[in-house]
Amino acid sequence: MKYRKKMFIPITMNKSINDPRILRGMEKQLQLRQHRLNMGEKSIGWKVGFGAPAALEHLRLEAPLIGFLTNKTLLPSNATVSIADWTKPAMEPEIVIYVGKDLSGEADRETSRAAIAALGPAIELADVHFPPDDVETILAGNIYNRNVILGRADPSRAGCKLNGLIGRISHNADELPAASDLQALTGDIVDIVIHVAGLLSLLGESLRAGEFIITGSIVPPLWVTPKDRITYTLEPIDTIAVDFC
């Protein structure tokens, strides 16, 4: 199956995992998640990554990879993050979906759309500490995730209303070109919800009300260094920022 702009075909559509790399990697990842939950962390949601067309092609994927998020990774806006011991720090401005209803792996598109209770901005911080070439290894390491920052949740965007949203990012004093096609690199956001719910169901997990999904970077990842400041506005919802040291 070929990737088409702003759309992917979820690997879970036929209710089977047809990529053994994903099965092995997710098994290891969920073991890591369970260990962290056993140590007292709380599950807050999920993330997708490598959903851009070039990444899908490079890794021979039909849909983005899925990772997990816990409360230990959550930071406030304007946090200062030390990256002194990171290998290759990256920042990604994303759209976050707030899930308002439990979703089974059988949920259709309209049910999945209706489960989106709000949208907002998110920043993911990642450390690409090994080359992103092996799907199983990427998944086992939870797709490089270090931290997540959330902005205001806008319930007027329930049902995935994207009209009028624009992403504006500044890297220190430099303003990047505005992102108006917010699904160009992520794929269709409702399809992401279907994909996450379906794959989790097959693996014995579920997508629950009160969780959220960060849906992938709306621009190519920004590589950061100490003393950098990144500001991200998902206009007109909210502005969030992070400093690095």
What features would you highlight for this structure?
alpha+beta; five-stranded mixed sheet; eight-stranded mixed sheet; globular; 245 residues; Fumarylacetoacetate hydrolase, domain 2; 5 helices
Overview of this protein structure:
With 245 residues, the chain is α+β, with helices and mostly antiparallel strands. The chain has one domain: Fumarylacetoacetate hydrolase, domain 2 (Alpha-Beta Complex). 21% of the residues lie in helices and 31% in strands. The protein contains five helices and 13 strands. The protein has helices spanning 20-38, 53-59, 109-114, 135-140, 189-202, and strands spanning 43-49, 65-70, 74-75, 79-81, 89-99, 116-127, 145-150, 166-171, 174-175, 212-217, 222-223, 229-235, 238-244. The strands form two sheets. Strands 1, 2, 3, 5, 6, 7, 10 and 11 form an eight-stranded mixed sheet that branches. A five-stranded mixed sheet has the order 4-13-12-8-9, with no helix packed on it. The longest helix has 19 residues, at 20-38.
